[in-house]
Every structure is written in structure tokens, then in C-alpha cells.
């Protein structure tokens, strides 16, 4: 069953404006379109869309996602290259997570500090 962008938005929760932007960026060259340029998504297209959303949530750049999708379209001969892209993103996420955990720890310490203050006087709550 083929679905329109609006149907895909309802099914996935990914905004149609974002989907259209990604289409314009060439992330889904395999999509079927009619004479009015209405795009239709198969179930495998929707899975590819979800994959792009996962990669974007990891802050992967559009150009890298495009490279990944282009490699995907070339088939199994590009598995090693795609594996390397995924490996690099895993390392990026690990580093970002470590940094986020450090920031969380600092914020929690600051919060505990504020809890210990007598904040009846608002000036005391501004202490660094």
C-alpha cells in the first residue's frame, strides 16, 4: 500500500514539512511520484524515512545522511562504507552523551546548592 506524505506524517509523527525538506535535499531518490509530483511511500520507504529521522536525532548532518542513503541505493557492495558512517555516529553520540552527563552533574550540583539556600530573600538565590 502506497501512502501520501500526509498519511506518512500521521503514521510516523514526522511533520510533512520536514519530509518535504528531506525530499528536496535528495534523501529519498527512490520515491515514486505521479505527474503532479505527489510522492508515494511504500512500507520500505517509510522505514527509510524513520531511519533518516533517527540519524537526524543524533545530529548527523544532512550531507552525511544523503551520502548514507546514496550508498544504500547502490546495494550490498557499500555495506562497509555504511558501517563506517554508523560507527562514526556511534562514537559521536558516545562523546556527546559523556559531555551531556557532565553538564547534568554540574546542573544537579547547582540545584542542590540552591536547595540549601534560604530563598526567602531572593537576593540570596542569585548567589553563584
Describe the protein.
A hairpin with a 5-residue loop joins strand 1 (about 30-35) and strand 2. The model has no long low-confidence stretch (mean pLDDT about 90). The chain starts with a helix and ends with a helix. A two-stranded antiparallel ribbon has the order 1-2. It has six helices and two strands, in the order ααββαααα. About 10% of the residues are buried. The chain has helices at about 5-10, 15-25, 45-55, 60-75, 80-115, 120-125, and strands spanning about 30-35, 40. Helix 4 (about 60-75) packs antiparallel against helix 5 (about 80-115). The chain is elongated. The chain has about 130 residues and is mostly helical. The longest helix is centred in the last third of the chain and has 38 residues, at about 80-115.
Structural key phrases:
128 residues; mainly alpha; two-stranded antiparallel ribbon; 68% helix; elongated
Count of strand segments = 2
Unreliable segments of 5+ consecutive residues: none
Provide the succession of SSEs: HHEEHHHH
**On the 0-100 scale, what is the average pLDDT?**
92
- Which descriptor suits the 3D outline? elongated
Strand order of the largest sheet: 1-2
Helicity range of the residues? Answer: 55-70%
* Distance separating the two termini: 59 Å
Figure out the total of helices.
6
